[in-house]
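Model the whole thing, not chain by chain.
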Amino acid sequence: MSSSPEPLHRALGLTDSEFDDIRKVLGREPNHLELALYGVMWSEHCSYKSSRIHLKRLPTEAPHVLVGPGENAGVIDAGDGIAVAIRIESHNHPSAIEPYQGAATGVGGILRDVFTMGARPLVLMDPLFFGRLTDARQRWLVEGVVSGISGYGNSVGVPTIGGELTFDDCYSSNPLVNVLCAGALPTERLVLGVASGVGNLAVLLGSSTGRDGIGGVSVLASAGFSGDDGAASLDDAKRPSVQVGDPYEEKRLIEACLELLDRGLVLGIQDLGGAGLVCATSETAARGGVGMDVDITAVALREADMAPFEIMTSESQERMLAIITPESWAAVSGLCAKWEVRARVVGHVVEPVRDHDGNAVGMLRVRRGFEGEVLAQVPAASLADQAPLYDRPRQRPADLDAVRADDPTDDEPVGSPNDDLLALLIDPAWVYRQYDSQLFLNTVVGPGRDAALLRLAGPGLPPSRRGIALSTDSNPRWCALDPRAGTALTVAESVANLACVGATAKAVVNCLNFGNPEHPEVMWQLSESIDGMAEACRGLDLPVIGGNVSLYNESGGSDIDPTPVVGLLGVVDSLVAPPPGWAWDEGDALVLVGTRTVPGPRPFPLGGTKWATMRARRGGSVPSFDPGPFARTVRFVAGEVAAICAGTASDVTAVHDVGGGGLAVALAEMVAVTGVGAEVGELLGHGELFSEFPGRFVMTTSDVEVFSARAQAAGVAWARLGTIGGSRLRVEGAIDLSVGDIAARRRDALEDALASAG
Amino acid sequence: MTRIGVVIFPGSNCDYDAASAVSELGATCEYVWHSATDLSGFDGVILPGGFAHGDYLRPGALARFSPVMEAVANFAADGGAVLGICNGFQVLTEAGLLPGALQKNRGLTFLCQPTTLIVASTRSVLTCAATKGQELVIPISHFSGAYTCDDETYEALEANGQVVLRYRDNPNGSRGDIAGVANEAGNVVGLMPHPERAMSTLLGSADGRVLLSGFVSAPVDVH
């Protein structure tokens, strides 16, 4: 390993043209350290260089949006002087290699993004995607990821209140571990990651800096940069690049940072995430239009002899960068000592320099001592914002028409609806029982339901009767068939889920998990998906306030199905009573609310459904979508539930969105949870059992006359399906199962699969 | 008005919840940092749930060395009401203020779920307002909640009425279905379930009120 076989910039992941760009920016040859800084900052992960031109098409504005995309988290005004910050991220690749730490550090990272805004993190959600559990490796991944989220989230003291659990072969080699965090703050405390005021100090808070998470840049160790070829540097190069998390450090860091903010001791604050110190210092300086001198000898290290590039790019966890005035230092350092949080002044805010044209340019200077040798000197903004943007080639997959033509709606045999229904039931309780879902006394509706519903309260917040609702949704089966329509339907599905807890949707965050962007088919999927999301959000009047793009989710040349995950935040104006949930009663009338069929030749399309996928039929077309009736239905359902949450007496006893698995699964879930059966008359066809399209709700009412009059008045379609009662779920001519069988099968499905040998 | 101190160790996380609950019941609540050495003026002290000192080594093993624990021991010896919830219970057993120990759950996973408790004794500052045999729905949220003790201790606990709460359906493998125990005098109580999370039907149950309202208004002498 005495020398790299290719030019250093390529080994660092920079193309020849990117290398030329760097030379142009600097007006000279970069040194190795500078090249390393560009290598990490201009990576896909940090720069979004393949997706940025497409993301611009998303709507991002609404009167209640306080902070949109581009900051650490999006923020909305939730009313009553309270702002809610929200962010979603992926930790897919680390979790594939080391599931416990990958998932745990994903939780840690997203928390820092939220409290960076001044918000106390109040909830986490975890959408998870694995291969099928018949494979032993998948069981190892599931157990590792879930225990990592549990171990970190519970200990750090932020409840995990929902998520998703999807099993599909396309994730076998590339699991997806996404994590969403929402927090709240008094609106006036909102802070941004900006460095300002020449002479101010940049203080590195939290953990010491080690060699973990150096990742791709570790090539420098074997490129002779560390100055010590041979066995030692070979060891360094092989060091695991997955970071290791410490929730106890994070908990103290959260409390220290929130107290610093409460006491007005910080001017700006920024978490250290991907690309570590170089990212935090260059981003804060670039936002403030100032320069920053960083003294690498001031950084507390876990190991002696770390090279400057390692110190600057390490992704060691549980670290924050705070910008303070020199006068505050004594108070800051005292407060950090109380919380046993390390605080070191590692940077000075300095005047920008003038370039040849007289423009002010904030320089990031990496030095050995504040007055010592300058090791690297680059314009901060060139690292943070001036990565090249790519419009990569896009191409509709050649086989898409053939896939769509192979529609299971037309020719898949009906089989046994009883057996199919049982096979589709799965209760994720084994997962969410491992998460503390109740901390802060806010969880009104927790995991395992249509959406989570929380009181909007917490330490340091003004009193409020409002609630917030959250849901994460995805449908890769739809998106594989039609990424544009599939993504639009996913947004709609999410809005429908929120309606079940009485919430009005306010803002979207997205996590776009796609394959290799150098495959034109993947870029086409990404671009189409973004257009679908933009269309749906415009149609439903929803701003997208943040997101994350995870590309290169491929293995052995095979890309995952496009998996845009929608995180939706909504508000309930008055939350004094719980929503009805799924708890129907004997004798209630069972009603389907919403447009019952899809217009067109296939009233109950089965393409992309769980039912068809279970039979290895992955073709067909996704249902068409009419936003008009959908919006009316959702408004009606949300209004019915919101009235109950506000304390109004109602004849409505249960509400459940018809989602994955279709009407049959929705009914069976309610049967399993209540232990009470239902008698349902003949449906409009076998397809109605398992067809999936958003905008339908199972509702029960103790007074169908009164209920139907309200639906009528709202211009919402409804149909009486049957009556609640008995110990069986019977759908005339289709399904006849005992309540006990349904409940047992649903309860045991996941644990049985995890316990299977092989 | 009753004055309750809620101790915060680095890593505690149910401090706000415990303080909210007892404040709602009319008590005056103050946070006490773990370095405090004086608890005079308080009518009761709560050690809340969480992961004190990161639960490093094992839950409560380091927290018992925090300066405040000597003050808690003195406070208890003077007959003051002390309540340890979840991690606080673990700390009290590690500190020797309550008998027994908490082991990892039988299933070796964290468990957060509602449980039904049965009041086994009312001779404690926590259960004094409840009735014997009363069923209370209160959630658990822990990894190390399986109560264990030797035979001699167990017999003494039974004989003295120190078992104050039992699980109806044992979720974690606790010996004798024990969910909470008191010291012999009844003024120090620990339990793994979280009564502060069961203060309102909006959140699923209000059954925790009978326990915490008893604690807040408990006469110091519960004999």
